[in-house]
Write a structure and sequence with these properties.
171 residues, alpha+beta, 26% helix, 34% strand, binds coenzyme A
Amino acid sequence: MEMHGRQVTLRPLDPADAARLAEILATREVARWWTGYDQARVEAEFFVAEPNVTVFGIEHAGALVGLLQVTEEPTPEFHFAAIDLFLDPGVHGRGLGPDAIRVVARHLIQQEGHHRLTIDPAIDNEQAIRAYAKVGFKPVGRMREYQRFPDGTWRDALLMDLLADELEDGG
Ligand SMILES: CC(C)(COP(=O)(O)OP(=O)(O)OC[C@H]1O[C@@H](n2cnc3c(N)ncnc32)[C@H](O)[C@@H]1OP(=O)(O)O)[C@@H](O)C(=O)NCCC(=O)NCCS
């Protein structure tokens, strides 16, 4: 399935995308937050189907510039979807991240019946927190020692969530 935003298209991955995604994940700006990815891990994590997980390639101007992953909680009483993404540093700061999140958020709310979405940037990932706030995500709380970094330290993350009627369309 393909979905179109103002600046991006979300589409299924093709096996030929693995090398490009590994290249993006190796950049300093992305590897700082998405740590420890080589091509073998990219193939194992994003190209092997997993229940309740959907992975999209993010395209801009005809080129693959990133990845967005949705993980859905299937238990009816706790139904929600979590979003993760990264973009090539060459396109950061141009609103592509918010555009990609809006497209998938609209789909999850309108087609998949979700009322609540979550996203969980590192507590000091200001670029990501600003991007997610623009879409309508609200800070909920600090998740302590949430992610382990290559230096061995566990660092905190910010849980943000968005309820269906809070989605901002970006004007
Ligand atoms: C986080 C990310 C998805 C946000 O997407 P984006 O398209 O860059 O988001 P935006 O264009 O809305 O920019 C967000 C903020 O980044 C900052 N920014 C703008 N240009 C920038 C640049 N060239 N470099 C660094 N930061 C920049 C600005 O503060 C901007 O907020 P503002 O528009 O209110 O001033 C993307 O930057 C990214 O992939 N980063 C690296 C990986 C990562 O952090 N993933 C998220 C893990 S939770």
